[in-house]
Amino acid sequence: MCTLLAQSEQLDRLAEIAIRIGVRVAEGQELIITAPIEALPLVRKITECAYRAGSPLVTTLFTDQQAILTRFEHAHDHSFDRSTGWLFEGMASAFRSGAARLAVIGEDPSLLSGQDPGKIARANRSRSVAYKPTLDLISSFSMNWSLVPYVTSSWAAAVFPQYPLDKAVTRLWQIVFAATRATEPDAVAAWNAHNGDLRARTSLLNGKRYSALHFRGPDTDLRVGLADGHKWAGGAAIARNGITCNTNIPTEEVFTAPHRSRVEGYVTSTRPLSYMGTTISDIRVRFEQGRIVEASAKRGSEIFQQLLEVDEGARRLGEVALVPCSSQISRSGILFHNTLFDENAASHLALGQSYSKCFIDGSDQEKDDFRARGANSSLMHVDWMIGSPDLQVDGLSEGGAIDPIMRSGEWTT
Amino acid sequence: MCTLLAQSEQLDRLAEIAIRIGVRVAEGQELIITAPIEALPLVRKITECAYRAGSPLVTTLFTDQQAILTRFEHAHDHSFDRSTGWLFEGMASAFRSGAARLAVIGEDPSLLSGQDPGKIARANRSRSVAYKPTLDLISSFSMNWSLVPYVTSSWAAAVFPQYPLDKAVTRLWQIVFAATRATEPDAVAAWNAHNGDLRARTSLLNGKRYSALHFRGPDTDLRVGLADGHKWAGGAAIARNGITCNTNIPTEEVFTAPHRSRVEGYVTSTRPLSYMGTTISDIRVRFEQGRIVEASAKRGSEIFQQLLEVDEGARRLGEVALVPCSSQISRSGILFHNTLFDENAASHLALGQSYSKCFIDGSDQEKDDFRARGANSSLMHVDWMIGSPDLQVDGLSEGGAIDPIMRSGEWTT
Asked: Measuring CA to CA, how many Å separate B106 from each of B8, B42, B157?
């Protein structure tokens, strides 16, 4: 009883964090939530918080994971080249008209593990094409948005297969509440302090004006040239509509834009990537002039190869992010099978679309200018983890100076 | 255990009826389902049936009744003049591109009973304006569509307040399964036979070419002129996209289009109307030249008056429907607080938008022609019940002949 009470209070606090720190919906601003149907208890609390904060309309688009699986099991072959463009276009239209976006994340990481990789790839591609108008609004930071977690039973079972389900769910909630600071009596103050720490780190890096980062580790030797006029971002940031938000709850990363043509060398992933209900592990890729020219994966190889074929931008980097191994989420030592957590446990790269907030004056620039400065464009944005206690990161300056940024996975300063 | 098993089998059969008799989704045709979130078990079965039938994409937009209530309890005042136009426009766009529509019905009939009628009226009006593009596609029968029921606990509690909740739910499911023919081992054959019976009735009435119907009963004396070139419809019908469907599961009615300017006299409702989470009872209205010039209601009077103010068409009839008191649903003697059932238990009228399928050559005509023939147009279409064992209905012919159609609520032939 006592545990349940505590959990309910922390769920209240997570809803408050989602609205007051995450998306920060403004008075008069419509809110669109996407969520797995199991997240209903959190969605109800978030909905109340949003209406109290002055949102005139809160609409949740629930996804039933079972329906996705049913499609793969029973739909005819032509299904997998189709997507709900009408729905994504409707959402994009709402965002263009001023709505904010909140996505509740907690999908079953192995939902599609037994399904045909060819169908998965086709379905993902169709979805990416249909989703592009929304992805463009997100990557250009047109409106305030945020991702927040919800522990579904399938997610908990994937993280703690050794536990009975109820224990797995309880244990994962403990970790999720701690990582999202819902355990803090004054969660808003705790988030403000954390945002301050991340801002100090981005200020330091932005002062350096590195031209490239050099990653070294087991089976990794990679030089990532940074985009011209890149900017390090992390924690709270101001969207183009003028509203400050925290786009990820939790977040431990600082990140910026690589130059899409200036990446050289090879790199190996340190954590499996959970991607659209499948797992891709032991990714190893080699870059020449920013482009992946060799790629392999032990598990999920076919899905990974097809992901790289989506478009030219899928073979190039759109983000590079640094996370120390001492970060709260990393210290848990858990593999989350969920990018919102795993990317905050380890330094990572993302293939695909760049974010405009990773450019100086990003909120005033047009896309063509980003491209000239080295931004990448793609239907996708997929993060995968390369950080570990064996990772060394150097900052390279135009003049030839080399600064140690991370040693053994930790900040040097 | 035995009851549960039977219920699960009948739910399977209801899903099959929804797809094979109700909406009859075609190979290659996208399907959009709307449903209360409690209807998830039925939605999952329907989704599987639809994929098996060759639908490439099945998308369900779930509604959480609690979120609607939360809006009324916590949203700021400006909320009630807003609606999710982006979502309705997206749906309409999908229907225009060929998608079929299936709505699962089972809302709490008294959800908003304690809320401010002014806010309810404003929210309904905003929603009606935003929904108009979809209503136009439905009323012009552009695509195959259907409504099917699901017993939510709040609906069951409203129907059987005298029972404990689990008994209320079980009892209402028994009635719903019987009314939808899910109790029949060969439900498709049973529906084909029922559609044949309704077709025989509409053929009979269409042969008569009545110019008007005369309703007489307690506190009712109403002449309803029929539209020029009206057609009686009922049971299965062919949508403009060429697909036959049953738009209501269950259905017992035959119905046609009144002439919007040729209704005279007064009429009193015989069952309460459940409208958008509120109840309107003891409606009494008087018509002159098709227009309501006096209107009252005992319960829900303010909501009813505001409904009449939505637009000019809200004061005029868009449908007249005949249902004998011996119909299976009527015989149950139950007040369902749900129009999908109550309208099939009693003859009824609808205020607002006409249906194009109630016109000869309805599938080839443009709207302007319908209007010249007496069709009504409105943001709304609201059915309310006037049938009872005390109702007499005569058919009036152009030449002055009077045919008795119903006596004491039953067909005369």
From this structure: 18, 12, 12
Residue A73 has φ and ψ, to the nearest 5°, of -80, -35
Q: Do A40 and B37 touch (CB under 8 A)?
A: yes
∠A60-A251-A29 over CA atoms, to 5°? 35
Name the domain count of chain B: 2
Quote the mean pLDDT of chain B. Answer: 95
Using the Cα atoms of residue B128, residue B130, residue B133 and residue B137 in order, give the sign of their dihedral.
Answer: negative
Please check whether residues B392 and B288 belong to one and the same domain: yes
Identify the H or E element spanning A245: strand A244-245
Tell me what ipTM this predicted complex has: 0.93
Rounded to whole angstroms, the Cα distance separating B119 from B132 reads 20
Instruction: Specify whether A270 is located in the same domain as A159.
Output: no
Assess contact for B177 and B193: CB atoms under 8 A.
Answer: no
**Rounded distance between C-alpha atoms, residue B300 and residue B334, angstroms:** 21
| Nearest chain B CA: its distance from A38 CA (Å) | 11
In a domain, residue B193? The reply is: no
pLDDT at B1 over 50: no
Among A397, A42, A99, A372, smallest CA distance to A241 is for A99
Q: What is the pLDDT of residues A265-302, one digit of tens each?
A: 999 999 999 998 899 999 999 999 999 999 999 999 99
Provide the shortest C-alpha distance from residue A87 to chain B (in Å).
6
Whether A174 and A221 share a structural domain: no
Nearest residue of chain B to residue A29 (CA atoms): B79
Query: Which structural domain, as residue segments, surrounds residue A392?
Result: 210-233+252-411
